[in-house]
Amino acid sequence: MPVVLRDYSAGELMKTLSVDEKGFQVIDYTDLNGRTILHKVQTDISNSNTYIGWLCTYYVYDDFGRLRVTITPSLVEKIAQANNWSITSEQLNGLCYRYEYDQRSRQWANKSPGKAWVYIVYDKKDRQVFVQDGNLAAQASSQWIGTIYDELNRPIQTGVLYYSGNRSQLQALVDAQSTSTTSISIGVNSQDSIAANLMINQRQTGRTSYKATSTIIFESDFNNETTAEFTAEIVSPTSITYSGNQLVNANPIPPGLTFVPLSFNFYDHYAFTGKTFTQTYNTQLDAGTNNYADPVSAQATSLVNGKLTGTRVKIIENPSDLSKGGWLENVHFYDAIGRSLQTQHDNYKGGLDIVTSRYGFAGEIVSSYQVHTNTSANIKNMTVKTNWNYDHVGRLLDIRKNVNTAPERIIARYVYDAMGQLLTKKIGQKRVDANTLSADAMEEQQYSYNIRGWLKGINWDYTTDVSRTKPQANKWFAMDLSYDWGFDSSQYNGSITGQRWQNAGDKAERAFGYDYDGAGRFMKADFRQYFSSNWQNTDGSGFTIDYSVKMGADGVNTGSAYDANGNILKMQQWGLKLNQSPQVDNLTYHYSTDNNLLKNVVDGVNDTQTVLGDFKTSSLHPHASNTSPSRNDYVFDRNGNIIKDLNKDLGNASNNGVEYSPYTGLPYRIKKYNPAVNGGIGSDIEYVYDAAG
């Protein structure tokens, strides 16, 4: 970490000060090279102290002008209050952003607060070839995500490298690799065209067979026609093996190490695939009301140099075993001027999805035709045709769809004002009867704007009543937004002061009035309803209704609501329960020492049986009665992902509840624990992603 041994002298820093409409200041100090040294945001206008009442962020650079450390406001506050500008290693890891560079000024490592280091390896052309985050490093076999390039620096492969050495050792191995272009062979199996597991809840008339490679389940609501004849059959899996070669420039994979591909990109040709362009659906692509739509190309161009022509992406069915799961192939076909004419991509559940597009003269898509087919499983084609119609300046006028052979339906229609702002949106179409659609929209939304072009209202009437504005009649929903007037705490910087709204149910007008602190952080929302010509918290039946929210102790004191890094410290919320509005949340948040990781949330009015959607500590929580700040409710992995939440029974005292794929960073498995259930797991959900997420 760089160490600054002196103060800046007079004339070495430039101060830039901006003041908002309420008098709160933002100050930036920059050095003579234009680098920001200190960024200050005022939260307490009554305090002019150097640090108290300000959110301060320091930026530390090395002798080469490279950003090395960002000191976040929470840490600045700690060391300023201690009057000791000394940072511990725990504070550096938990409250600072850090960056490391090599002799070529390439960033080879970076660290975010509360996360493990991310390491980067480059080849001799300064291309990023390997990356390792905390979860990859923690695998049983230390792993790196790798990227392989062609001689035009285009990524052609990604995959997982198994290597147990450190970053410097791997960098040395990559530096020793040849920079020449070589050919490598590739071979993968495509996804089976027949689904492994088939669940059927609706009969397709005329279908004669159902096939799967593992299980077929007819659900309880499945009903077939009286004369139906069909078979259900478990068949052997079938797949197509693709093989070929790719030209790799400066292959970074050291000899003797295992590299498992996760994706392939193909450019300039179609030799990698057996898919070909089909013009079968061209006749479905009409121009709609667009006057200058280009005709649909009868064939795709073969002049695709520089174009991405296809990809193959691995299906990660089990992150612990990359040998499982097939591959999904996507192929892109282009017209003579390089626009995407057709895409064909494999479907995870089997079959093929084809999307063909037609364009207008200006390059906008005017229609598309999507077809899903799975002939191997005897699934009838599912088709969706979409039309987009534009006016003479390219503004969208309407969207129309046809699903299979059903009549065309208008999804939305748009009308604009002279400034180009959306004036009216008409949604859907009403039905005359079961078989006939009306030209009338299901809902018409009228948009209003203030003089700055900010949205003012939807379906709100500003003209018919001089005493007060009100919702338009006979609308499903209406809303009015206020910025600088109409509520107690006016805002002048674009933040919303309050909103009023009405729905078609009881037609009661309701409102929230908002307030913020000097940094623009939400502080409170006061709720009212309009009854008997007054804004109050009582409805026509005398029931108290209140959905107010307060941050901190009172919705005013920002220091009790947030810490300097913006982490919530306390939140209160009211709700409707048995015709009254008691406080349903009184939450106090506690964080681990010297980092931003949430440790626990204690609800002062916890109700384990609530179904209101408010926060609750589960009755199965092993320490539910312990409201101490030392209670551990949450556990995070090395990448900062939550892996245990005892309030939601995601995990228990000895087990985590969420598992992540180290290759996508997405949750792979979520387990909800319940000791009353056999095995102790109440529900177990697994997600399947491809390598692209």
Keywords for this entry:
three-stranded antiparallel sheet; single chain; globular; 48 strands; 693 residues; 4 helices; 33-stranded antiparallel sheet; mainly beta
Overview in brief:
By secondary structure, this protein is mostly beta strands. Among the domains are: 1-101; 109-190 and 241-264, no CATH class; 197-236, no CATH class; 268-380, no CATH class.
Fold topology:
Layout (H helix, E strand, L loop, with lengths): L12 E7 L5 E7 L4 E7 L11 E8 L5 E5 L1 H10 L6 H7 E6 L5 E5 L6 E5 L5 E5 L1 H4 L5 E7 L5 E8 L4 H9 L5 E9 L7 E4 L8 E4 L2 E4 L12 E4 L6 E9 L8 E10 L40 E9 L10 E8 L5 E7 L5 E8 L5 E10 L4 E12 L5 E8 L5 E8 L5 E6 L3 E3 L2 E2 L5 E7 L5 E4 L1 E2 L8 E2 L5 E6 L15 E6 L5 E8 L5 E10 L2 E3 L12 E3 L18 E5 L8 E9 L6 E6 L30 E3 L5 E4 L12 E3 L6 E7 L7 E6 L2 E2 L3
Parallel strand pairs: 13-15, 14-16
Antiparallel strand pairs: 1-2, 2-3, 3-4, 4-5, 5-6, 6-7, 7-8, 8-9, 9-10, 10-11, 11-18, 12-17, 18-19, 19-20, 19-48, 20-21, 21-22, 22-23, 23-24, 24-25, 25-26, 26-27, 27-30, 28-29, 30-31, 31-34, 32-33, 34-35, 35-36, 36-37, 37-38, 37-39, 39-40, 40-41, 41-42, 43-44, 45-46, 46-47
